[in-house]
Amino acid sequence: MPKDNGIGESPKRREDVRFLTGRGQYTDDMKLHGQCYAHFVRSDVAHGIIKSIDTSAAGKMPGVCAIFTGEDFVEVGGNPAGWLINNRDGTPMKEPKRPVLAHGKVRHVGDAYAAVIAETYEQAVDAAEAIEADIDEQDAIIDMAQALANSDHRVHDEIDDNCCFDWGWIEDNRAATDAAFEGAAHVTSLELVNNRLVPNAMEGRASIADYNPGTDHYTLYTTSQNPHLTRLLISAFVMGIAENKLTIIAPDIGGGFGSKIYHYGEEALVLAASKKLGRPVKWAATRSESFMTDAHGRDHVTKMELATDALGNFLAIRTATMANMGAYLSNFATATPTYLHGTVMAGNYTVPLVYVNVKAVFTNTAPVDAYRGAGRPEATFQLERVIDMCARELGMDPLELRRKNFIQPDQFPFTTAAGVEYDSGNFGALVDKLEEIGDLKGFAARKAESADRGLLRGLGINTYIEACGLAPSNLAGILGARVGLYDAATVRVNATGNISVMTGAHSHGQGHETVFPQIVADLLGIPAESVEIVHGDTSKIPFGMGTYGSRSLSVAGSAIVKATEKIISKATKIAAHMMEAAEADVTFEDGTFAVAGTDKSLQFGEVAFKAYVPHDFPHDELEPGLEETAFYDPANFTYPSGAYACEVEVDPDTGKVTVCSFAAADDVGNVINPMIVEGQIHGGLGQGIGQALVENCVYDENGQLLSGSYMDYTMPRADDLPSFTVDQTALTPCAHNPLGTKGAGEAGAIGSPPTVVNAVVDALSDLGVTHIDMPVSPSRVWSAIQAAK
Amino acid sequence: MTSVSMTVNGKAVSGEVEGRTLLSHFLREDLQLTGTHIGCDTSQCGACTVHVNGKSVKACTMFALEAEGAEVATIEGMANADGSLGVIQAAFQEHHGLQCGFCTPGMVMAAADLLAANSNPSEADIRGHLEGNICRCTGYHNIIKSIQAAAAQMG
Amino acid sequence: MYDFQFEKPSTVAEAVAALASEDAMALGGGQTLIPTMKQRLAAPSVLVSLTGIAEMQGVSASGGLVTVGGSAVHADVASGAGDYPALAALAGNIGDPAVRNRGTIGGSVANNDPSADYPAAVLASGATVNTDRRAISADDFFQGMFETALEEGEIVTSVEFPLPESANYQKFDQPASRFALVGVFVAKHADGVRVAVTGASEGGVYRWTEAEEALSASFDASALADLSVDASGMISDLHGSSEYRANLVGVLTARAVAACS
After folding, report:
1. CA of C110 to nearest chain B CA: how many angstroms apart?
2. Rounded Cα distance, A333 and A360, in Å
3. Cβ distance C75 to C29 under 8 Å?
4. Which of A155, A624, A714, C204 makes an SS bond possible with A694, Cβ 3.0 to 4.6 Å?
C-alpha cells in the first residue's frame, strides 16, 4: 500500500505551479544589478585561417566595455574530452585542443573568434559588426569518407587523416566474427545513415557570470544539466579557478536532452569578462546560435551485417561505422559512439559473436555529442533494421525472428557477446504485452481499410534494450572515463521534522522535485509534502554528476535511499536513548519508533527535534543533529528494454507518411511515479519519431548549415504525432540498486526510430522497397517508390 | 524613445521604448513579466504567445508600439483572482501537460485562445491549433489531454 | 535589429506621405519582416504600420466580388470570406493561429514569397490588386520571386476577388516552415479555368497554362492524365527535389479539381 504520496503514487508535480504561472526562473529571466551583455562574433565560413582580427574601431563604439579574441585565451587550458578511447592497436586517440575562442583557425560555421561586451545587447551586436576579421577561407571538410581519405585537407593541422580514433569492440572477437560470417547460411547486409540532429531544447543556452572582486569569488548561473561537472571542467581543465572560489548555479532549465551536459566556451568567456570588468556579464543564445553551436546528435554512416543459419538463428553481428565528431571533441563525444553504442550491439539476443568497428572523424561542422539516447539509438536502429530486413529475406515474421533469438528470462544474469552483463529482463513478456496493447491482430483489417482510401499501411515492430543509469565508476575508469559516475545526496532533517534533500541530480523537466520526496516519504513514513528538494547549486549540494543517461532515479535516487537509511540508523540511536532502550530493541515503521514488547513509542518528528535539542545526549556516544550524506556508485549499468509497434499510412502519390498509431511496452524496472514515467516515455517517443520522420541537420559541401532555423529544421509538432498507447507493467526490477529502477528518460527515443522506419518499409515492401534513410520525408519516400518501379 | 501605454493583465502600464523594442522585450525587461519566453527568432516556437485584444499573437513578432492602447494578457494573468490556478493551468498540472515548463506559458495561452473560440474541440482541432507552439519534452500527448480536460470542465 | 522610427498613420494618404522618406518601409503584420529585421537583413529608417488605417480593413462581398482590405489579417479572411470558401480555407491554413492574427494579405502579396499561399489565390482567381494609386491585374502583378509590379512606396489597399463557379486550393506543407512546398489553386470561371502554382518554381507563383487549357475543355481530373510537368526551373532544396515538386504539381492539381466537383 503506497504511503502518503509515496512510491507508486502519482502526486501532481509541485514544480508545475511556478511554471504554469510564469514564475519559473530560467537563466535569461535573471537580471543582475549592473549586468552587461556579451555577444559572440562567429565564423560564417566552415574552415578558415584567421590572419588578423582588428577590434580597434569596434572598441570605440558606444557602450563597449571589452572585446576578447582567441589571443586572450592562449594561456588557458582547453575544454577536454571526458573519455579517452584507444585505437584498435592500443594507441591513444587524438585530442586536439578546444579553445575558449577560436585561435589560428575557425573550424565550423558558428565557431566564435571574438566576443564583445557592452552595456546593452544591441550595442554589443553593433560593435561586433565593426570588427574586421581577415579570414582566409579553406576548403571545408564535410564528408566523413573524404575526410579520412584526404590528408591534404585537415580540420586540425596535426591530425593528418582527420581520424580521432579507430576503435574495435571486441577486438579479440574480430577474427571469430569474420569466420562466422564466412560459414553462415545467410548474411543480411545494410548500409545506412543515422541522421544528424539538433537537440533543440526550447530554452537556448544562457550564462551569467558574476565575479565579486571583494571576495575573489565567481558565481556562474548557467544552463547546465550537471553543475558540478561544469565546475570541475572549468576549474581543473580550462580556467584554473579554485573550485571553492567558483559557484555554479543551474536554475530552472528549459530542457537539455544532452546538449546542456557539456561545458561550452561561452561559459568561460563570461567568467573571464566578469573578472576583467568586475560586473556581471550575461549571454543568452539566439536560436540561430543554438543551431550553430549546441552539440549536435547522432550522425553515423554505418555498414551493418547479420549472419544467421538457415533457420534464422543469429550467428554473428559485424558492423563498421564512421561517427562524426564535428570540429572539436565535446565532453562526451568519444564515449557516445563507443561505450554507449558498441556495448549494446547484441541487443535482446543470444547472438554469440559481435564485432563493432567505429572510426571517429573530424569535420568542419559543429561538435557532435550525446543527445537523448546517445549511441544506443544508433545501435538499436542499425540492429533492428537489419533484423527486419533479414526476416523479409528469410520469409519469416519479424516478431517471430526476434522471439526466436531472445535471451530467455531464466538466462539472466546474461553476459552478451558485446561484453556487458544484463541483470534482468523478460523480452517475451514485453512482446506479449505489445501484441495486446497494439492490437497487432487487427492490423490486416486496418490495412485493407487504408487501401480502400488509396493509402499503403505498414506495421513496424521493434524491440530494444539499452544500457543506462550511468555508470559504475570502476568500469567507466577501465574504459577511459576521466570522471567517476556515482551520485550523491544529503538528507537534512530540520529540527521541526521537515526535510531538505540536496541532490547531485538536476531536474530540467524530469520532475525530481516531486519524485524524490516520494522516496524519502516512503522510507520515513512521513508526508511527501514535508520533503523539499534542493538541486542545481554547487554551494548547497554535495558533489554529484548530474542528469543524463537516464541516471537520476537509479543513481542519485539510490544515493537518497542510502542517505535516508543513514538517517534512520542515526534516528534509531537517538530514539533508543530517548526511550532508554537498547538500540537493537527499537523498531521503526511508518514514521514511528517503538521499543519491541513495550508501549513506548516516538514519532519521527519528536526524535528529529531531540537531535537538535540534545540536552541530555551522552556526548561521547551520540552526536547532535540529524543530517547524512551518501554517495552511491552503481554496481552495473541498468538495462531498460521494450517492445514497440507503429502503424503508418503512406500516400503513394506524394510520399507523405502519417503515423497512425504507436504502442510502447517498456520495462523500466520499478516505477516510483507512473505519471512521470509515462511522460518521459511520451517525450522520448516524440523525439524518436521526430528523428525518423522529419528532423534532419544538413550542411552543404561548403559547410554552410542549411537547416539553421525552424524554417528548415523540422521540429515535430502536435499535428505530426499521434496519441500514444504506453504500458510499463511488464517489468522486471533492476537487480542491483535499492529502488529496482532502470530509467525511463531515453527509452522512447531509442526504441522508436527503427519502429517507424520498419513500418514505412513494411508499407512499401510490396513495391520492392527495402530501406529508406531517416528522415523518411515525403520526397525520400516518393523517390524510393519511383526507384523501385 | 517613444512613450507607449497599454493594459497588461488588467493593469494600465506605460514605458519608454525604441521603435525596435519588441512586445516580448517590453514585457520581459520593462515589466519583469518573464513568463513570456523567447525560444526562437523566426516566429515559430510560440513560447512567447500572449493575447492582444483577445487574440493570440507571438509577442516576439510584434513591436511594443504596435500594442499602443491594447489589452494584453500574459501567463502571469491566467490564475484566478485568489491566486489559484485557472482551469487550463490546473488541467495542465493534473494531466502532466508540462515537463521543463519553457513552452508552457505559450501553450496555455494558445489553449485559452482555442477554447474561447471552440468549446468542444476534437483532438485534431487541438493538434491543428498548436501548429505554432513547439514542445520538445512531452511529445504533446499530455498537452492534448490537458486541453481536452480543460474543455470538458469549462463546458 | 537596427533601430528605426515607428509611424502609424490612420489614412492611406498619410501612409503614402510617410513612406516617401528615405529608407522607409511599410509594415503589415510583420510576420516576415520582423524576423528578417532580427537578422539585420532589413534596415528601414522609418517603419510605417498600415494596421491603423480603417479603410484598409475588413472583408466584404457584393456583385460577385469578394474584397479584402490590404490590412485584413488572415484570420479575418478565414472567418469573413464565406462567399469564397476556397479563399477562406486557404487563409485559415496560412502559418499558425497566432500568425493568422497578425499577418495581412497586403503584406503577403507585396512580399510575393515564392512559397506563400495568397499569390496562388490571387492569380488563379484573376483578382485585382488595388493600390493607393492604381488597380493592377493579378497577371501583371506577380513578376517573379519576391518581385511585383509595386513601385517604391506603393501600398496594397485591397484585393478584389471575382467569385469563380468553383475553386479549391491544395497545399502540401514544407514540413518545417509550413509554407507551401507546393500549392495549387484551381478556379473554374465562366470563361475558363485558371490554375496557379506556388512553392514550386524558381520564378515564383505561375499559371500552369497546359492544365488550364485541358481543364477548360473538360473540367475533370482525368483531363490532366496526359500532361507532364517539366521539372526544369523548379525549386530544389533539402525538402524536395525539382522532380518531386513537379510531381506534386500534377498530383495537387488533380486533387484540387476533384475537390471542386
Report:
1. 19
2. 9
3. no
4. A714
CA distance C208 to C124: 10
C-alpha A388/C-alpha A523 separation (Å) is 45
Report residue B94 as a C-alpha cell: 493534473
Task: Output the CA–CA distances (angstroms, integers) from residue A653 to A763, A784, C135, in the order listed.
Answer: 14, 12, 40
Contacts of A31 in chain B (CB under 8 A): 29
Q: What is the pLDDT of residue A471?
A: 85
Q: Would the CB atoms of C172 and A122 count as touching at under 8 Å? A: no
The Cα–Cα gap between B36 and B24 comes to 7
Concatenating the DSSP letter of every residue in A707-771 gives S-STTTS----GGGS--EEEE--S----SSSTT-B---TTHHHHHHHHHHHHHHHHHHGGGT---
For A319-355, write each residue's pLDDT tens digit.
999 999 999 999 999 999 999 999 999 999 999 999 9
* Of residues C249, C138, C142, C139, the one with CA closest to residue C205: C142
Cβ neighbours of residue A146 closer than 8 Å, sequence gap 6 or more: none
How far, in Å, are A785, B109, B149, C159 from residue B113 at the CA level? 42, 6, 15, 28
pLDDT score of C45 = 96
Q: CA–CA separation, A317 vs A312, rounded Å?
A: 13
Given a contact cutoff of 8 angstroms between Cβ atoms, the answer to whether C125 and C138 are in contact is: yes
Beta bridge partners of A662: A646, A724
DSSP state, residue A602:
E
Residue position matching grid coordinates 566556451: A265
Rounded distance, CA A716 to CA A698, Å? 17
Nearest to C97 by CA among A610, A665, B118, A520: B118
CB under 8 Å to A121, separation ≥6 — which residues? A37, A39
Cell of B26: 517590453
Cell numbers representing residue A148 in the block = 579520412
Query: Could you tell me which of A294, A276, A273, A277 has the C-alpha nearest to residue A39?
Result: A273
Instruction: Kindly state the cell numbers that stand for A58.
Output: 569596434
The values of phi and psi at residue A469, to 5°, are: 65, 50
**What is the rounded CA–CA span in Å between residue A392 and residue A583?**
66
Alpha carbon separation from A348 to A192, A194, A391, B111 (Å, rounded)? 21, 21, 16, 42
For A461, the grid coordinates are: 515492430
Handedness of CA A273, A275, A277, A282 (dihedral sign): positive
Residues with Cβ within 8 Å of A474's Cβ and at least 6 positions away in sequence, in order, are: A633
Give C153-188 as a 3 state SS string. CCCEEEEEEECCCEEEEEEEECCCCCCEEEEEEEEE
Average pLDDT over residues A115-137: 98
The three grid cell numbers given for residue A419, joined into one nine-digit string: 561484453
Which of A653, A655, A698 is closest, CB to CB, to C238?
A: A698
Pair type for strands C156-162 and C65-69: antiparallel
- Residues A514-543 have pLDDT tens digits of 999 999 999 999 999 999 999 999 999 999
Distance, in Å, from the CA atom of A553 to the CA atom of A696, rounded to the nearest integer, reads 31
Q: Is the pLDDT of residue A573 over 60?
A: yes
- B100 and A508 within 8 Å at the Cβ level: the answer is yes
Q: Model pTM? A: 0.97
H helical segments located in chain C: 12-19, 33-38, 74-80, 85-91, 97-100, 105-111, 118-125, 138-141, 209-217, 242-260
CB contact under 8 A, B132 and C97: yes
List chain A residues with CB under 8 Å of C237.
Answer: 706
Q: ipTM of this predicted complex?
A: 0.98
Q: How far is A714 from chain C (nearest CA, A)?
A: 4
Instruction: Quickly tell me which residue has 520564378 as its cell.
Output: C203
Residue C31, chain B, CB below 8 Å: the answer is: yes
At C130, list the grid cell.
Answer: 488595388
Q: Does A29 touch chain B (CB under 8 A)?
A: yes
